[in-house]
């Protein structure tokens, strides 16, 4: 086996620039369109809800974008994050595979989300903004923006998907501890929320609904900007610190991964681990398979249509070309709340269309089975979202065992599950159901996709 279980970088090896995959793609990504005119949006169209620095990053084409020193200073609270060799898991599986995982649960909020929450809070403060509104699914993004807001003196309001609001009270408590306010979505505070409740007073909510509420608040209040925890280009950009560090750490370990794996909901942690490796493949020909793993109950990449769609249910956002289940699609209330989004990041979707990544789906019971095996061998309880990556990594290791050939597996353990123990309780008691989406609802949602001439 190996005598080294974790590979650590010193603080001076925190990346000094984020990596922008757009510079290396063989074809440029499709333009983002204005919902009214159908024309590509310009900076002025986004200025009502985003600071200009983030708008510039959203459309940037240069390969490297410098990380501001105040952001790097805060990154030092938890970065560089460790790379672990899962030796005990390898032994439990009796596999010739080498399994590595990049552990993002060491951040103050317990996930990868502060990697973008901190720079978003920084750029908004620099622009003179004092209030931020946002949405959250499982609560990891909401607690991360609450944490970042507390560092920069920003008032943060979080609309949390109702089913997660009910399932995860300690995530709410964490947001409030950092000074944010947390509201169950759909709510009566916004026109978007009231419209949903009129149709379904018991709506479990969705990220598309919560986004509508948060965007509405930002658009109607000059002192408030909107912050998004996934999907957009600048969010994927900020998350590349994960993969940039992992490349150095894999070099320390003396291995190049045969496969890189990440769970995928909106696409942020997946892009963070995957894009720097894809960039190496595109620039240097360093071969690697890249696998996005999504829930069977919300199979955006594997079942969705690649088309222009809104990012929210009230159609307040620009039109983005992405893999989508339709903006009105509401998935069932499974435990991986952070993966319950109808669309996939445009850059991740574009990478799949170019054949640079692959995607697979899994149900939640096999995921929690993998999460338990990981916890009992490696000692870390994965977040429900992260168990999707754990499941895929274990499957890859078992395939290597069956073939009798070693392979090197790297996955992103995007967060811990300390606030998600009810999900593990449900699994251990046999109460966890493998939920499937409603095919009729999906077809109705896809039938309502906007008609865009640019397609």
TrEMBL record:
<keyword id="KW-0822">Tryptophan biosynthesis</keyword>
<dbReference type="InterPro" id="IPR006653">
    <property type="entry name" value="Trp_synth_b_CS"/>
</dbReference>
<keyword id="KW-0456">Lyase</keyword>
<dbReference type="GO" id="GO:0030170">
    <property type="term" value="F:pyridoxal phosphate binding"/>
</dbReference>
<feature type="modified residue" description="N6-(pyridoxal phosphate)lysine">
    <location>
        <position position="113"/>
    </location>
</feature>
<keyword id="KW-0028">Amino-acid biosynthesis</keyword>
<comment type="pathway">
    <text>Amino-acid biosynthesis; L-tryptophan biosynthesis; L-tryptophan from chorismate: step 5/5.</text>
</comment>
<comment type="function">
    <text>The beta subunit is responsible for the synthesis of L-tryptophan from indole and L-serine.</text>
</comment>
<keyword id="KW-0057">Aromatic amino acid biosynthesis</keyword>
<dbReference type="GO" id="GO:0052684">
    <property type="term" value="F:L-serine hydro-lyase (adding indole, L-tryptophan-forming) activity"/>
</dbReference>
<dbReference type="InterPro" id="IPR036052">
    <property type="entry name" value="TrpB-like_PALP_sf"/>
</dbReference>
<comment type="subunit">
    <text>Tetramer of two alpha and two beta chains.</text>
</comment>
<dbReference type="GO" id="GO:0005737">
    <property type="term" value="C:cytoplasm"/>
</dbReference>
<comment type="similarity">
    <text>Belongs to the TrpB family.</text>
</comment>
<dbReference type="GO" id="GO:0004834">
    <property type="term" value="F:tryptophan synthase activity"/>
</dbReference>
<dbReference type="InterPro" id="IPR001926">
    <property type="entry name" value="TrpB-like_PALP"/>
</dbReference>
<keyword id="KW-0663">Pyridoxal phosphate</keyword>
<dbReference type="InterPro" id="IPR006316">
    <property type="entry name" value="Trp_synth_b-like"/>
</dbReference>
<dbReference type="InterPro" id="IPR023026">
    <property type="entry name" value="Trp_synth_beta/beta-like"/>
</dbReference>
<protein>
    <recommendedName>
        <fullName>Tryptophan synthase beta chain</fullName>
        <ecNumber>4.2.1.20</ecNumber>
    </recommendedName>
</protein>
<feature type="domain" description="Tryptophan synthase beta chain-like PALP">
    <location>
        <begin position="77"/>
        <end position="415"/>
    </location>
</feature>
<dbReference type="Pfam" id="PF00291">
    <property type="entry name" value="PALP"/>
</dbReference>
